[in-house]
Amino acid sequence: MIYLAVCDDDVVFASELENALIYVCELHPIEYIIQVYRSGEQLIDDLRKTSQYDLIFLDIEMDNLNGVQVGEIIRDVMHDYETEIIYVSAYTDYHPAVLPLKPFAYLIKPVSQKNLSAVFRKFMGAYTLLHDRYVVRFKNTQQVIRKREIIYFESHRRNMAVTVKNSVTGQVSTIDYIAPMEQVKTDCQNSYFIQIHQSYFINMQFITELHPTYIILDNEYPVPIGRTYKSQVAVLCKAFLERNKQ
């Protein structure tokens, strides 16, 4: 799933860009969600709550909070250096103030379908597993988490807790919600997650110590290894640790 945002106070242009993005996304084998914001304040408000985006199309010339200021908040205040930003402007000259914000691209209005498709192809080429998201849904709310920041999942029947470490601040937090372990395993199928106990599904990237009956994760939390998982876990985790030492 790729999360995209369009932020522009020009209602007509924002709608046109959203439709153009839908067309471009449909040409790729991806699932996507596009959210449109009419102001920089709305976007920042969502980002400060639960929203995370892989790519933001950001207008430079907006009333009140302009695109440069929004970019500065994302990079310098929120310390988000992973979300890609594509600036959109009616000015043909590259705005010098956006350079320190490391934008992915700079598009001139009106944005042609050809230029949008070319930029989006480059973005998809750069998109890796590091940007994979896991969505926690509870009641009427949802929170989007980067999978690589997940330390482990802990299950008590249908009650699930996911422990996350912010890659920038190092802060560790836990979110409680309802989900079956099998669904979590399906949603997080990749090379660095492994089940080591009927109640624990861990991210091997956070292993600091490997013992015969338990594993220490880098938040100093000891996780037990279930009897039925011992042989497989020992081999996989040791191989993972050795590979990362090279």
Contiguous uncertain segments of 5+ residues: none
Supply the helix-strand structural class: alpha/beta
CATH topology of the largest domain: Rossmann fold
Tell me the radius of gyration.
21 Å
CATH superfamily of the largest domain: Response regulator
Largest sheet geometry: 5 strands, parallel
| CATH class assignment of the largest domain | Alpha Beta
Count of helix runs: 6
Tally of separate domains:
2
Under the CATH scheme, the architecture of the largest domain is 3-Layer(aba) Sandwich
How many extended strands? Answer: 15
Helix amount: 25-40%
What is the 3D form?
Answer: elongated
Determine the N-to-C terminus distance: 32 Å
Instruction: Tell me the β content.
Output: 25-35%
Strands of the widest sheet, in order across it, are 2-1-3-4-5
SSE arrangement, N to C? EHEHEHEEHEEEEEHEEEEEH
Quote the average pLDDT. 87
Descriptive notes:
The chain has 246 residues and is of the alpha/beta class. The chain has two domains: 2-127, Rossmann fold (3-Layer(aba) Sandwich); 138-245, LytTr DNA-binding domain (OB fold (Dihydrolipoamide Acetyltransferase, E2P), Beta Barrel), CATH 2.40.50.1020. It is 30% helix and 33% strand. It is built from six helices and 15 strands. It has helices spanning 11-26, 40-49, 67-77, 113-126, 181-187, 230-245; strands spanning 2-7, 32-37, 55-59, 84-89, 105-108, 133-138, 141-146, 150-156, 159-165, 172-178, 193-197, 200-203, 207-210, 214-217, 222-224. The strands form four sheets. It has a five-stranded parallel β-sheet with strand order 2-1-3-4-5, with helices on both faces. Strands 10-9-8-12-11 form a five-stranded antiparallel β-sheet, covered by helices on one side. A hairpin with a 3-residue loop joins strand 13 and strand 14. Helix 1 (11-26) packs across helix 4 (113-126) and helix 2 (40-49) runs parallel beside helix 3 (67-77). The longest helix has 16 residues, at 11-26.
